[in-house]
C-alpha cells in the first residue's frame, strides 16, 4: 500500500505554491519517476495514430516524453514537441524513444508559439497540477489558441476523484472543503526508492465527474468559440468529441472548427 | 534541441509583445549536425506551415545557404532532401534566441531552449 493521499488547501500564491509542490518535486524525482512511466495509454496512442502525416503538435507537460515517439507504427510522420516545467524531466524526454527529440522548457500557461500554428496538442496528467480553477482554465485556453482554427485537435487527461477498483490509492473524501468548488485538492506522496526513502508530496487537483468538460467549455467560451458541433455560417467553435473516464482519469478530446 | 523546424514555430510571448515577435534571432550559437531519417511525406505535409523567409533567414544565420529564396513549385526529391537537412539535421545546442521586437533573450542550453518567463512577464 502506498502512503495515503491527503487533502490539502492551496495556502499561498498559486504560482509559488506550484513551484514548491509541483515543479521542485518533479525536478527531484525525475529519474525515478521516469523509470515508472514508460507505457503509453491506449486512448492517447490511438488518438495520435489518427493524425495526418505531416502534422505538428505539442505535448503540454510532456514529462519524460513517452508520447513524443508516437505513433510507433508510423515513425517520423508526426512532429510532437515536448513542453515541460521540469528541466530534469526534459533532459530525459530529449532522448525519448532512443532518438533525439525536440523539447522546450516552458510553462503550460505561456504561449511561446506562433498563434494557431499547430495541428494538435495533447496535455496528459498535467493540468491537474495547477492550483486554481482560473489557472486550469487558462491552460486549456492556451491549448485552444495554439491549434488550427480549422481542424485543431486536442486531447486532455487529468486525474479523477473517481478511482477504478484496481487503484492502489486510498483517496480522502471531501474534507471540510468549503470552497464550493468541484473536485478535491490533495497531496500525493512520491517515495524515492533510494536508501533514505525520502517522501515528496505533489499537489494535485483531482477532478470531479463532469468538471473537465465544463472547464473546456468555459475556456472555449472565453475565447468566443461556440461549443458544440460545427454549425451556422462564419462561426468559430470547438466540439467536445469525447468526454470519458478510464483508469481513474477523466479525458476530453476537442476539435476546433470554423464554418 | 532547437532545430529549424522548431525555430519556425516559436515566437516571443512576453506580455504585450505581439507584433514583430517572430522569428527569434540566433546569437552566439553552437551547432551540431545529426543525421535523421528522410521522410518526404512528412515534409510535404509540413511545408504549408513554414514561414519561408524566416526559415531562410535562420538557416543563413547558422551558415547554411542551400535553400532557394522562394519555395519552389516543384517539390522534387533533391529539394526535399535539402529541406530535410535544413529543418531536421541542424541542431542548435547552445546559444540565445533574441526577440526582434522586445529583445527578450531566450537562452538555449544543452539543446533545450528556455522559454520560461517571470510571472510578471506572462501575458
UniProtKB/TrEMBL annotation, chain A:
Annotated GO CC locations: cytoplasm; nucleus
Entry annotated with the keyword Transferase: yes
Top-level division of the source organism's lineage: Eukaryota
Entry-linked Pfam families: Methyltransf_11
Ranges where the Methyltransferase type domain occurs: 59-144
Keyword annotations from UniProtKB, A to Z: Methyltransferase, Transferase
Gene Ontology molecular functions: S-adenosylmethionine-dependent methyltransferase activity; tRNA (5-carboxymethyluridine(34)-5-O)-methyltransferase activity; tRNA binding
Cited Gene3D superfamilies: Vaccinia Virus protein VP39
InterPro entries: AlkB_tRNA_MeTrf/Diox, Methyltransf_11, SAM-dependent_MTases_sf
GO biological process, one term: tRNA wobble uridine modification
Listed PANTHER family: ALKYLATED DNA REPAIR PROTEIN ALKB HOMOLOG 8 (PTHR13069)
UniProt name for this protein: S-adenosyl-L-methionine-dependent methyltransferase
From TrEMBL, chain B:
Entry GO MF terms: protein heterodimerization activity
Pfam families assigned to the protein according to its UniProt record, in alphabetical order: Trm112p
UniProt xrefs under InterPro entries: Trm112, Trm112-like
Single GO BP term: tRNA methylation
Subunit field text: Interacts with TRM9.
Family named by the database record: Belongs to the TRM112 family.
The protein's name in its UniProt record: Trm112p-domain-containing protein
Originating organism: Mycena maculata
Amino acid at each position: 500500500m502506498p502512503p495515503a493521499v491527503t487533502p490539502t488547501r492551496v495556502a499561498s500564491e498559486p504560482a509559488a505554491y506550484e513551484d514548491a509542490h509541483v515543479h521542485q518535486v518533479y525536478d527531484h524525482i525525475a529519474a525515478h519517476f521516469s523509470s515508472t512511466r514508460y507505457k503509453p495509454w491506449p486512448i492517447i496512442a490511438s488518438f495520435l495514430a489518427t493524425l495526418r502525416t505531416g502534422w505538428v503538435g505539442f505535448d503540454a507537460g510532456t514529462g519524460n516524453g513517452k508520447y513524443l515517439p508516437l505513433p510507433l507504427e508510423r515513425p517520423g510522420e508526426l512532429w510532437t514537441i515536448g513542453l515541460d516545467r521540469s528541466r530534469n524531466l526534459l533532459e530525459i524526454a530529449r532522448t525519448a524513444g532512443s532518438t533525439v527529440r525536440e523539447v522546450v522548457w516552458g510553462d503550460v500557461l505561456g504561449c511561446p508559439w506562433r498563434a494557431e500554428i499547430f495541428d494538435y496538442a495533447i496535455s496528459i496528467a498535467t493540468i491537474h497540477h495547477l492550483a486554481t480553477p482560473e489557472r486550469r482554465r487558462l491552460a486549456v485556453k492556451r491549448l485552444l489558441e495554439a491549434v488550427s482554427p480549422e481542424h485543431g485537435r486536442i486531447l486532455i487527461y487529468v486525474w479523477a476523484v473517481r478511482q477504478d477498483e484496481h487503484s492502489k490509492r486510498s483517496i480522502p473524501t471531501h474534507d471540510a472543503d468549503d470552497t464550493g468548488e468541484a473536485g478535491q485538492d490533495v497531496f500525493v506522496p512520491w517515495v524515492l526508492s533510494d536508501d533514505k526513502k525520502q517522501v515528496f508530496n505533489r499537489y494535485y487537483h483531482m477532478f470531479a465527474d463532469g468538471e473537465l468538460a465544463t472547464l473546456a467549455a468555459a475556456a472555449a467560451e472565453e475565447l468566443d468559440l461556440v461549443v458544440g458541433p460545427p454549425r451556422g455560417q462564419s462561426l468559430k467553435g470547438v466540439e467536445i468529441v469525447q468526454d470519458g473516464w478510464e483508469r481513474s482519469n477523466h479525458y476530453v478530446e476537442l476539435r476546433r472548427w470554423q464554418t | 534541441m532547437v532545430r529549424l523546424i522548431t525555430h519556425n514555430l516559436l515566437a516571443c510571448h512576453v506580455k504585450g509583445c505581439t507584433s514583430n515577435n517572430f522569428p527569434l534571432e540566433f546569437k552566439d550559437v553552437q551547432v551540431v549536425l545529426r543525421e535523421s531519417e528522410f521522410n518526404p511525406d512528412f515534409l510535404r505535409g509540413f511545408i504549408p506551415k513554414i514561414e519561408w523567409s524566416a526559415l531562410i533567414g535562420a538557416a543563413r544565420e547558422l551558415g547554411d545557404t542551400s535553400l532557394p529564396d522562394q519555395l519552389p513549385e516543384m517539390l522534387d526529391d533533391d529539394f526535399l532532401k535539402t529541406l530535410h537537412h535544413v529543418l531536421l539535421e541542424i541542431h542548435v545546442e547552445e546559444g540565445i534566441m533574441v526577440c526582434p521586437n522586445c529583445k527578450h533573450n531566450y537562452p538555449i542550453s544543452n539543446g533545450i531552449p528556455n522559454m520560461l518567463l517571470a510571472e510578471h512577464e506572462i501575458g
